[in-house]
Amino acid sequence: MEYIKVSDKTFKSYLSKERIQAEVTRVAQEISKDFRGVERPLFVCVLNGAFVFASDLFRQITLPDAEITFIRMKSYEGTRTTGKVKTIVGLIESVVDRDVVIVEDIVDSGYTMQRLISQLGDLGARSIKVCCLLKKPAAMKVTDLQLDYVALEIPNDFIVGYGLDYNEQGRNLPDIWVVSE
Fold first, then answer.
1. Taking the C-alpha atoms of 111, 113, 117 and 123 in order, what is their torsion angle to the nearest 10 degrees?
2. What is the 3-state secondary structure (H, E, C) of 19-42?
3. Staple partner for 176: which of 15, 29, 123, 147, CB 3.0–4.6 Å?
4. pLDDT tens sequence across 119-132
5. Catalytic entry in 56, 105, 108, 165
6. In the chain, where are the structural domains located?
7. 105 belongs to the catalytic site
8. How far apart are CA 38 and CA 125, in angstroms?
9. For the domain with range 17-156, which CATH number is right: 3.30.70.1060, 2.60.40.740, 3.40.50.2020, 1.10.10.60?
C-alpha cells in the first residue's frame, strides 16, 4: 500500500489513474451516444474540483458542436460539507432552450447538485442531465436526485486527487487517494 501526505493528513492509494480513465471513457461514450443528434449540448463544469474530470471527459465526447462552460460553487471546508452551498462564479452563457450536462467531481449530500439543477431549470434549460465522477450513496441527503452518468460509486470516505482537494491541495495528483487517519 502506498501513502502520501497532503497538508496535515495521510492518504493511502485508492483508485489508479488507469481505472479512472477507463470509467471516464465509458461515461463519455454513453453521453456521446445519448446526445447524438442533439444540437449544441452545453456541458457545465462545476469548479474547482471537476476541472480535471471535465477536461478528460470533454476531449472524449464525439459531438462536434458540444460546448463547455464553467460555474464555481462551494460547500466544503476542510474535510466536511458545510451544508450551505455558495455560488462563487456564476454562469455567463444562456441556457434557454439548451440541453445541459452538468459535470461534477463528486456527489455526496446532493445539496449542491439540487441547487444547480434548480437554478438551470429556472434559467430555461430544455433538459438537464448530471454527470459525476464519483457518487457517495451512503452520504446522500437528497433522496430524489437523478444522477444520469456516474463513473464510480465509493464509500463515504474523504478523498483527494484527480481534481479533488483537501484545503485546496492535492488536486494535481493523477490517482485518487483516501484518508487513512
1. 90
2. HHHHHHHHHHHHHHHHCCCCCCCE
3. 15
4. 899 999 999 999 99
5. 108
6. 17-156
7. no
8. 13
9. 3.40.50.2020
